[in-house]
Write a structure and sequence with these properties.
The chain is an alpha/beta fold and 258 residues long. The protein has helices at 7-27, 33-53, 65-74, 91-103, 122-131, 143-154, 164-173, 186-192, 201-224; strands spanning 80-86, 158-161, 178-184, 228-233.
Length: 258
C-alpha cells in the first residue's frame, strides 16, 4: 500500500488484495507477521484520514448510509424501502450475500465497502449509522428505539423490528409505502464464538434468511404495484486477533465504553 493513495484506492486494496490474503492466512494457519504489518499500514492511514471523512458527504463512511435511504424516498425512487442492519457483517459475508441475492434473481445495484465509525463497536458505530451523524454524548437508549424516534420526523410510515419474524409478518399482512427496518444480531453473536474464518455453511444460514426476506418483501411489493429497494448495512466487520496479541491500555485522553 501507498500512503498517497486515494480513499477509493485504499478500499480497493483492502477488499481485493488484503482480505483474500487474510483469509488464506487464517484458513491455512500461516504466520501472521506480514498480515499484521499490512493491517497496521491500513490502520495508520485510517487514523490519519479519519477526520476528513467525517465532513465529506460523499465519503464511503457509515454516517452517509441513512441519507441515501432518505434520498430514495425524496427522489421518488422507491415506495417501499427495506433496510437490513446486520451487526458484524463482514465484507466477505456481504459478497456471499450479494451472490445469493443474484442467484435468486434479485437485482444488485451496488456492493460497496463502508468505513465504520471509530471505535468500531456497536454502541458507537451502529448509533452513528442510524443517526446519520456522530454524537459525542453517551446514552443508554436502545438503538432500535433511537431510530424509531428519529424516523418519526423523517418518514410517516416507518417500522423498526428486532426480530426477523416480526418483519416477515408486517410485510405479509400490512405492507404499505414506507420504511421497514430489521436489526439482525444473530450473525455477530455467532462470529464471536468462532475461531476460524467466518464464511462456512453455518454463516450461510443467516445470509439465506436475509436474502429470503428481501425476496419476500419484493414479491409483496410487486403484487401491490409498489416500487421497492433494499439496503443492507453493517455497523462494523470482524477480525480474528492473534492469540499472543497485546491489549493496550486506554490512553489518558480517552475513556472506555463498555
Amino acid at each position: 500500500p501507498d500512503i498517497t493513495w486515494s480513499v477509493e484506492e485504499w478500499l480497493y486494496w483492502v477488499t481485493e488484495k488484503y482480505i483474500p490474503y487474510f483469509g488464506w492466512v487464517i484458513r491455512n494457519q500461516q504466520q501472521r507477521d506480514t498480515q499484521m504489518e499490512l493491517a497496521s499500514r491500513f490502520a495508520d492511514w485510517l487514523v490519519a484520514t479519519y477526520s476528513q471523512l467525517l465532513f465529506d458527504c460523499d465519503a464511503p463512511f457509515i454516517t452517509n448510509q441513512k441519507h441515501q435511504i432518505l434520498e430514495a424516498f425524496s427522489a421518488k425512487r422507491a415506495d417501499v424501502v427495506l433496510w437490513f442492519i446486520l451487526d458484524g457483517l463482514t465484507w466477505w459475508q456481504g459478497k456471499k450475500l450479494s451472490n445469493i441475492c443474484a442467484d435468486q434473481g434479485l437485482g444488485i445495484k451496488q456492493i460497496h465497502p463502508m468505513l465504520s465509525a471509530l471505535p468500531s463497536i456497536t454502541s458507537i458505530s451502529k448509533r452513528a449509522l442510524v443517526q446519520g451523524s456522530l454524537e459525542p454524548t453517551l446514552t443508554t437508549q436502545p438503538i432500535a428505539q433511537l431510530l424509531e424516534g428519529l424516523l418519526s420526523h423523517d418518514i410517516p410510515n416507518a417500522h423498526v423490528h428486532t426480530q426477523y419474524y416480526e418483519m416477515k409478518k408486517a410485510m405479509r399482512t400490512d405492507l404499505k409505502s414506507g420504511l421497514y427496518v430489521l436489526f439482525y444480531n444473530a450473525l455477530d453473536h455467532q462470529s464471536h464464538e468462532s475461531r476460524s474464518f467466518t464464511d462456512d455453511e453455518s454463516i450461510d444460514g443467516h445470509l439465506n434468511l436475509i436474502a429470503h426476506l428481501v425476496e419476500e418483501g419484493f414479491q409483496q411489493c410487486l403484487k401491490q404495484g409498489l416500487m421497492a429497494r433494499a439496503f443492507i448495512s453493517s455497523d462494523h466487520g470482524s477480525t480474528l486477533l492473534p492469540s499472543p496479541g497485546t491489549v493496550l491500555p486506554v490512553p489518558n485522553f480517552a475513556h472506555a465504553v463498555e
